[in-house]
Amino acid sequence: LNSRDVPAQPVCQVLAAALLPVLLVAGYALYVRPDLGTDHFAWPMRPLINSMMLGATYLGGASFFVFVLLTRRWRHVRLGFLPISAFAATLGIATLIHWDAFAHERWAFWVWTFLYFVVPVLLPILWFRNNRLADGEAPIREGELSPFVRRAFGALGVVMTIAALLLFVVPDVMIATWPWALTPLTARVMAALFILPGLVGLAIAFDGSWASSRHLLTVQALTIALMLGAIVVARADLDWSTPASWIFVGGMSGILLLIGYTRLDMRTR
To answer: How far apart are CA 93 and CA 87, in angstroms?
Structure first.
């Protein structure tokens, strides 16, 4: 596959350095100390599993921006910018829809609001500018993912994107079948958590480049492992008598297996 090996613009490292501490603090507070989500987060987040799921996503996001800081190559991180922008935009729109549900007196709310109104605008601009610079460079050869892997990530992306749309557009329908308790607000937060890996899966399927995918797959694996850990810790929050709980755990585990298979496949080809 042809791609262009150019450095990411320095502003990408500046953004990563600015977002990284915010994501680490929020991830720690929501994942390691999820009890803080009730009294100190942008809104009172219950039950425990909701805090930990969002915290897992923040910690995974922090690992992505570590790669942005360390790799310095645009092609290694380019597929993550638009999915993260969609994640942030989903949360920004959810904030507007459920404005009254937020604790406006808390500083965490204003940090949340600033981030999710600014990031959805800033990241696409950086993506466009970096891609435009890359278009002027000579292409290089990269390893390609196998057709099976690309189809698998494409199917995964479609399923997760559809789930995200349903969670956002018809939250009441999804609340009735979800493995744990959701409100309309937390259902739309879950939509953001699903749109992110959904669009990543589609990006990997369409791009097919191992160099562009491998860091994202590491981020995905970390995030899903943390989510499975959250399910173990907050297992009492799930209704294990319904198929939805087992489907959720099985689906997350299946994604981890797919990522592991992809890495093994690329090593042996």
So the answer is: 10
